[in-house]
Amino acid sequence: MSRTNLVIVGGFLGAGKTTSILSIAKHLLGSGKKIGIVTNDQGSDLVDTNFLAKEGLPVLEVTGGCFCCNFDEFTAKVNELAESEMPDVILAEPVGSCTDLIATLYKPLMHNYVNQFVLRPLSIVADPKRVKRLMMEKEGSPFPNEINYLFRKQMEEADIIILNKADTLKSEEIQAITAFLKEEFKGTDVLVVSAKNGTGIDEWVQVVMGREAMPGSSLDIDYDAYALAEEYLGWLNSAALLKAEKPINVNSFVEKLMNEISIKLKEMNREIAHLKIYGIAQDDWVKASITSIYDEIDFNRTMEKDTEQFNLIINARVNTDPETLRPLVETVLAGVCNETNTETVHLKTECFKPGRPMPKYRMG
Ligand SMILES: Nc1nc2c(ncn2[C@@H]2O[C@H](COP(=O)(O)OP(=O)(O)OP(=O)(O)O)[C@@H](O)[C@H]2O)c(=O)[nH]1
Ligand SMILES: [Mg+2]
């Protein structure tokens, strides 16, 4: 049996991993390849899985913790995809607060699954505004030091750093950030990409599929600092069913909800890592994201028609504790429902801090 290519696309929350995976998947499908995707999160009810599935892609998820801590579930899902889809390439997105992937994922996979998979180099996607704020500007980071540390560690173990969102940058900025990254992470390839408009995807696919991963030394990482970085993030995953008195514009509903959550967090000076909301009614759907309290909402897609009944999935990762995040989101949701004469028929929420990372294997 031929071995399946395994391509891992990591990077911090909101960097553009899912958008990149969608773009790479379309590129590979266009050249006649079959693909499969594995998503990952600390909780369940994932915007990313729903979004990729709606795009018609075969996607399975590992929930309730990162790939490293759920190594057996990860390999089970990869095997399930390999059997059901017989893909040429499986694309996997580890959760954006995860690092130390060489020691806890690559090396164990190479040790135990070398006959099944061809492991491709580790790509770490980076949002330029985070590189600037967390690394380049002194005193620029809106996060505690441990989150900056995690961000740096993610890039330190990259085979390829993907400087994403190039469409938001001027060419001088691209040059300055690329030069900075090459200096900070000597010997690491830096590719400039816009996952959103497809620029640079062809080169990325060529580089990643052109060589096999050759994991070198494992990351030198302080697990206490890593655990603290995760603890500083409040995590909320909600799934709701809503019913309005008469058809409403769900795009406006999502925009209001997101704006008001962001404004409230800004008042408390609490940075958003990623807030994403997915709304669906029959075959129509809307997806919106915001990756900083200082940024605008980005709609990936909007609903065409007004509707009376719809489902919402809310995934928020914010530099605040769950005891603050949960009532904040629920109060804003209740307010927007009130304003739009909409009733929450059903609401399920998980809100927590990710626990200490406890990888199943760690090969130094
Ligand atoms: N302008 C621009 N926006 C992008 C690009 N890639 C991603 N985005 C936007 O960045 C936001 C986050 O993108 P995602 O792909 O969901 O990021 P992610 O890394 O998968 O996020 P998590 O799974 O939450 O860690 C979305 O609003 C995307 O539309 C890009 O190339 N250009
Ligand atoms: Mg994602």
Walk me through this protein's architecture.
The structure is a single chain. By secondary structure, the protein is an alpha/beta fold. Strand 10 and strand 11 form a beta hairpin. The chain has two domains: 4-229, P-loop containing nucleotide triphosphate hydrolases (Rossmann fold, 3-Layer(aba) Sandwich), CATH 3.40.50; 233-352, Alpha-Beta Plaits (2-Layer Sandwich). It has eleven helices and 14 strands. Helix 6 crosses helix 9 and helix 10 packs across helix 11. It has helices at 17-30, 47-54, 71-85, 101-112, 128-136, 145-156, 171-184, 201-210, 223-231, 250-267, 322-339, and strands at 4-11, 35-40, 59-62, 89-92, 117-119, 123-126, 160-163, 189-192, 234-248, 272-281, 284-290, 298-301, 307-318, 342-352. The protein is globular, with a radius of gyration of 20 Å. The protein binds guanosine-5'-triphosphate (GTP) and magnesium ion.
The helix/strand class is alpha/beta
User: What is the C-level CATH assignment of the largest domain?
Assistant: Alpha Beta
For this structure, the CATH topology of the largest domain is Rossmann fold
Report the radius of gyration as a whole number of Å. Answer: 20 Å
Mind telling me which CATH architecture of the largest domain this is?
A: 3-Layer(aba) Sandwich
List the main descriptive attributes of the protein structure presented here:
364 residues; Rossmann fold; 2 domains; eight-stranded parallel beta sheet; six-stranded antiparallel beta sheet; 11 helices; globular; binds guanosine-5'-triphosphate; binds magnesium ion
Characterize this entry briefly.
The chain is built from 11 helices and 14 strands. With 364 residues, it is α/β, with parallel strands linked by helices.
